[in-house]
Design brief:
The protein has helices spanning 40-59, 62-78, 80-91, 95-98, 101-118, 157-170, 185-196, 211-218, 233-244, 268-280, 300-312, 332-348, 383-386, 402-410, 425-433, 467-472; strands at residues 2-4, 6-8, 11-13, 20-25, 30-36, 123-125, 139-141, 147-151, 174-178, 204-206, 224-230, 249-253, 259-262, 292-296, 351-354, 358-359, 369-370, 373-376, 393-399, 414-415, 418-421, 441-442, 457-458, 461-462. With 475 residues, the protein is α/β, with parallel strands linked by helices. It folds into two domains: 2-254 and 460-472, Aldehyde Dehydrogenase, Chain A, domain 1 (3-Layer(aba) Sandwich); 259-450, 3-Layer(aba) Sandwich (Aldehyde Dehydrogenase, Chain A, domain 2). The strands form seven sheets. A seven-stranded mixed β-sheet has the order 15-18-19-14-13-21-22, with helices on both faces. A six-stranded mixed β-sheet has the order 10-9-8-11-12-24, with helices on both faces. It has a three-stranded mixed β-sheet with strand order 1-5-4, with helices on one face. Helix 9 links the parallel strand 11 (224-230) and strand 12. The longest helix is centred in the first third of the chain and has 20 residues, at 40-59. The two termini are 41 Å apart. The structure holds NADP nicotinamide-adenine-dinucleotide phosphate and magnesium ion (MG). The site of magnesium ion (MG) has 5 residues, from strand 4. NADP nicotinamide-adenine-dinucleotide phosphate binds at residues 151-155, 178, 180-182, 210-212, 215, 219, 230-232, 235, 238-239, 253-256, 287, 388, 390, 416, 456, 461.
């Protein structure tokens, strides 16, 4: 089995206590690599290295930092094949999905480095400034924050690592990254690219290990200026508390239960595809998935028929095979959670139209596969419509008019994503503007751009990442 080490102060090292863990391929259910497991001493060393490195890195000009980051991006591109296979095996991404991450990551690094070097307003004069008693120049000086901790989830490990690293580094901060225990590998491959590109030691550190114990150090350490988590709302609450003692800055990208609204004038095939993509992409393990599909009663029957048919055409199988549309869910725990929610939904009186069961894939019987599942007869108050399931399960809910659709969409503790399908852009936008949620796609779903900020309303998060808004939160 391959073995991966921690990355601290520019070196790949074993954990000080020698601890290791196995990482599992969810498609086979079998371990395929061992990984050094960071403990408290390793986390402390990573923070100390990041603190030392901050002095030099933060004093470089943004253009000099960009030179380093462009090299880093080139090395990430060269890792494309390894990163694709690693993400697919470790996190269960289909090969069609996993192939994007090295490309997205290298583009993100280049885009943020360029923006920070050439467009970001590091200094800004205050116009009309001057107090008549003591006139003088008033201006804003934007400066790097310091050591930033990035804690990432298992659903998009590589992309999330880039989304934390690229803006933080471009803005002159240093970083300690903690990948999810289920999916540690691609963050360590990214560290390989950083080392090969000569990113100064300590600027990037990667410490895989258990969130519970490492979190206590990373989120309370006085030398850490900011913690950025992407993860569950539950862990977000915990991190907010831990960060409060030393009043750290926090960005939290948390859970969701987003509504995808299909209006009566939607293009039928387009909307059906949008609902299927919006729900089942990466087996539904996407924070902003449109897991509540709200459908106008005028087109409900035809829509549901077509959505069922389209869903049943999806090929579930081993994620590295090119014909596979849906791979496994990430691990046995998640599989049990998904099935638990399906049983809850049935008890609550909802009806399974398709799916609703584990799948045994020939030759991959130990893998964690679940059939894409559609529930109807769902009331928005049911647990399956209120709680994040994080698997291939969608609730289809009927509405009578646009107002009711908006009311159902907003009846949630979350507000992360959402969609509106309509042939009229004006009508779709009118509905979208009333949705209390971070991002709304119109006649589309799941599309991200480096320059478009992303963040949640309500219990979906604090602050936003990406775009210039994101850069401003880490200076
Ligand atoms: P999670 O359980 O919250 O874990 C996220 C990360 O936090 C992992 O690295 C985890 O480490 C770590 N962690 C756990 N307990 C911690 C603690 N007490 N202190 C500090 N860190 C701790 O989430 P997940 O199950 O990996 O991911 C799924 C969740 O992420 C879903 O709720 C999803 O909606 C959310 N998500 C949100 C976004 C967004 O942008 N809003 C994007 C993707 C996913 P371990 O792995 O070692 O437990
Ligand atoms: Mg794994």
């Amino acid at each position: 089995m391959d073995h991966y080490k921690l990355f601290i102060d520019g070196q790949f090292v074993e954990a000080e206590q020698g601890a290791q863990f196995e990482t599992i391929d969810p498609g086979t259910g079998l371990p395929f690599a061992t990984v050094a497991q960071a403990g408290s001493a390793d986390a402390e060393r990573a923070i100390a290295a990041a603190k030392r490195a901050f002095g030099g890195w933060s004093r470089l000009t943004p253009i000099a930092r960009a030179d380093f980051i462009y090299d880093f991006a080139d090395h990430v591109s060269q890792l494309s094949l390894r990163m694709t296979v690693a993400e697919s095996m470790d996190a269960g991404h289909t090969i069609r999905l996993a192939k994007w991450w090295a490309w997205c990551g290298s583009q993100m690094l280049r885009n943020y480095a360029y923006t920070a070097a050439h467009e970001f307003p590091w200094e800004e004069d205050i116009l009309y400034s001057g107090n008549p008693i003591s006139p003088g120049r008033e201006f804003i000086l934007r400066e790097p924050l310091g050591v930033c901790v990035g804690i990432i989830p298992w659903n998009f490990p590589a992309w999330m690592a880039f989304a934390k690293l690229a803006p933080a580094l471009a803005m002159g901060n240093t970083m300690v990254l903690k990948p999810a225990t289920a999916t540690p590998i691609t963050a360590l491959l990214i560290a390989e690219a950083a080392q090969a590109a000569g990113i100064p030691p300590g600027v990037i550190n990667v410490v895989p290990g258990p969130g519970g114990s490492l979190g206590k150090i990373l989120c309370t350490h006085p030398d850490v200026a900011k913690v950025a988590l992407t993860g569950s709302t539950e862990v977000g609450r915990e991190i907010m508390k831990m960060a409060s003692d030393t009043v750290k800055k926090v960005t939290l990208e948390l859970g969701g239960k987003s509504a995808n609204i299909i209006l009566d004038d939607a293009d039928m095939d387009y909307a059906v595809n949008g609902a299927v993509l919006g729900t089942f992409n990466h087996q539904g393990q996407v924070c902003e998935s449109g897991t509540r599909v709200l459908v106008s009663s005028k087109i409900y029957d035809e829509f549901l028929d077509k959505m069922k048919k389209r869903t049943e055409e999806l090929r579930v199988g081993y994620q590295l095979l090119p014909q596979t549309h849906l791979g496994p869910v990430v691990n046995a725990t998640q599989l049990a959670t998904v099935d638990g929610y399906v049983q809850t939904g049935k008890k609550e009186g909802a009806e399974v139209v398709t799916g609703g069961k584990r799948l045994a894939i020939p030759e991959y019987e130990k893998g964690f596969y679940y059939a894409p599942t559609i529930f109807t007869h769902v009331k928005n108050s049911m647990r399956i419509a209120q709680e994040e399931i994080f698997g291939p399960v969608v609730c289809v809910i009927k509405f009578d008019d646009d107002e009711e659709a908006v009311a159902i969409a907003n009846d949630s503790i979350y507000g992360l994503g959402g969609g509106v399908f309509s042939k009229s852009n004006a009508r779709a936008e009118r509905v979208a503007r009333q949705m209390r949620t971070g991002t709304v796609w119109i006649n589309n779903y799941h599309i991200f751009g480096d320059y478009c900020p992303f963040g949640g309303y309500k219990q979906s998060g604090v602050g936003s990442e990406l775009g210039v808004t994101g850069l401003r939160s880490i200076r």
